[in-house]
Amino acid sequence: MSDSDLNDLVNKLRSVTGHVAESDNYSATVKKVNSDTLLLLEVVLRNHPCALHLTPDNSDAAFQFVLQRLEESLAVSAGTGTEFQKLYNWINEVSQSLEEERLRCVVANPKEFCVEMQSAFMTELGIEEIPQYSQNSESYQCPWNILFVLLSGFVQPVHLIKVQRGKLTVPNPTPGVVEAIEQLQKDEYDTAAWKQLLLLLDEFPISSVRNIWAAAMTYFPSCGPIVAAYVQRELEELRKAPKLAECGEEKDTLATFKDYLRLFNTFYRHLHVCCDIELYNLYFDFIVEFVQPDEISLHSMFRAALKDVGHHPLSTPLWRRYIESGPFTTDRMKGREWTKRVYINMLQTPLQDLEKIKEDFDNFITMEFHGRLLPEEQKSIDKRFTRAKADANDLLTYIETICSRTNYFMAIPPEREKYCVLSLSDERRAAKKKELISVWYSLLLSVKRSCGGGNSSSADLRRQRSFLRMRACFFGFDIPFWAEYLNFSFSKNSLPEDRANAMHIGDYFMKSSTCFALYIADLHVSVFHDYEAAFGVLKKALLQERKVLIHYLKTTSSTDIAIPLYHLQNIAVIVVNWMRMGMNKKNLFHSMLVAQFAMHQIDFLSLTMGVVKKLLIEKRIATPEAYLKPFHTFLYYWIRLELIRNRRAEEAFLVTKLWAEHLKLLLSSGKEKGWTPEEGGVDQLFFQSCHDVVLVHSAGVDAIVSIVDDLHSRISPDTAGRFTYAFEKLKHSLYMASGRTLPAPTSGCVRVNLSRNSIPIRYDAEYLKNSLYTRARRRLGAQEAVVTLKRTRTEVDAYPDESLWLPFSPGSQENLPPPPAPQKRERERPHRRREDRRGHSERGILSISTRFLSLGEQILYTDFPTRSTPPQDTTKLEALMKRLPTFVQYNPEYKSERVLSNEWLVDFMRQTESMV
């Protein structure tokens, strides 16, 4: 009895006894529900979206269905004149109130949160308005807001980042409940505290702690034991009250309908993502006992359930209930053939109690077919039964660990995992997860082995796909398991329906995962060749990251400083992959359009500088180089894509110039704060981009040098850091790459770089072609012909190999050439003396072939071009160079074999005039 009914009864008793006048709120006549209203309520329940299989793994059909219902309802005029309009208006309001009730302990303002979620869902559907609650089309037997609330109410961890969390409240709590709630207020994903709290809530009535259970199912949507325990308690409460058809009063009827609708919504959200057998059994208990659908609808529900979990070893009760429901045909011959096919499917599936199923099948054959079957059919059934029985014994040993009801597993988002600072409960959970991963691996290995590997039938493939889906839903938020499930679903023998379902059910869990979005986009391109769908997935992921960063900039909460950096990195990764993915369409302007979208629609630079400014004001970081790195990485790869794939050097040069303008502002700001250029954001990516531009766009050498000189002039010598070295190295490489000569030194001293990285090997020929030695010989007027070195770097070679930028698909491994056969090596005798079979050193060969001039020779030819000196004796130097180890090999035993004198080298260096 509700509080209002109790108050009415008390007022009536007081009025009868004469203590007080009868209250005006009391209704002398109780309003009874009519048969039409009761029939409409029953029809609404039987046409619930869960009963029609408009589930999360079939979201395309659900979206089309809800769009059609919204269009039809918008065309109807609003009003509550008829009984139908009044009832459907009330059901729409009840659907909204149930959603707010579910989120009461999750968010502080559930009404505002529901409005934001519905607005985002409307944007996803591409509509601007929704009907009023009183606008309902009579052509649809279920109000539109039921499905609309269910589809828009899938709460993901990313949705809870920007909202204030709700408080968990329990009336008259015990000390244990208070302690658990305090732990959950600190960390809502504390699995040990949740288990303790839910265990203690068994002592409270379900009506007082229903919000706590709803919060637990929101945080852990794929935890079957939690959902099954809640549903079990709700069913117990429903069995105590009269059923919907037995309620005489209108108020009791509507309250009972509300309880039914709440439980139906729970099944819709969790049934297809938990893959829990007990939950499916409770679902059919509720359907058969309280809803009572027709035979065709019931058979359709059974087929959908067996498609999801029919290969589970513990699904024997579902199969039995399916057979007991009987065929929905009146033809006896077709009915017994249907029952026979169901029994055969059970006997070839590894299930629990297969011996008992075999006995029931034999009894059925004896009664219906007089014990006669074709010999080939009987032989095939026995063979499959023996194989399935052996497989079932192996699987049941693993399933007992996975489906434990006492020590069950609760999947949490990866960003809430703790890898460094672990408490005792976190260590136990991590150990439990490792154990379950190994158990699932052994189970799937057993399934794959029993399915015959490459010679699998269609039933074996469905069985493997089913177990992969169960594992992915079991762990929920782990991308490797979803990737394996998607790879299998997109194989050659899969159906388009299976591919779509795999993507939709994965998107239910991984909606906020950048890695999953990139994976789905790559599947759209590599399998379906649908670039528009892939770009839509990436655009949606970018907008989601933008929302998170904008919320971070608007709030003053003490969020971890790694969170904004993580989302900035996600934006850079998505944008770069989006630009690369569109290159396959050979659209020269694709990268520019994507970059404009990132700069103007996503506001990548504004978000980056906003995050840096906020963290610096709050004094949570000392220097901003880490938060500027994602934006600079985006610019670096934009330049490389323009050079390598589009061959648009002018566009790359323009981007580099704009990048330099941005760095000037950073250097000016950092100079006031005493930052080094590296701490202010000027990193090696900019210098590498300048070098890449000059490699292709040789006409821009002077402009690039002037840009770098301008940057160098803005740096204080006290805070130069490594910038001066990088600046000099870049200028040197720019002249080397462009084929020009170095400018003459300002003093009489010639600078020689001793670092081997200062002159890359691939540019030695270009350097020696215009070396001081060649110029000196020309000034001397040598009569002999000067050997012109062949130009090894052509315009085509300046571009890297395009194959490195092409997307890689697992199927391309089959087309790779086989690896070369290993070369036969001569087998050495055990006591044979090891010989030195090495050839001349690669470094020595290179030095002999190019012969760098010594410092004395260069000064001699530069200052005294008319003087002729005899060549120095370099035999010892050449001998030393021949014995030097190569870049790729080194023999440690060589040191003990021969000792070379290096006194001559010391004497030679003493005679050197100067070395800088």
From TrEMBL:
Any one of the GO BP annotations: mRNA 3'-end processing
UniProt-annotated stretches for the region Disordered = 804-841
State what protein this is by name. Answer: Uncharacterized protein
Q: What is an example of a GO molecular function annotated in this UniProt entry?
A: mRNA binding
Coiled coil location: none
**Gene Ontology cellular component annotations, sorted alphabetically:** nucleus
UniProt source species: Angomonas deanei
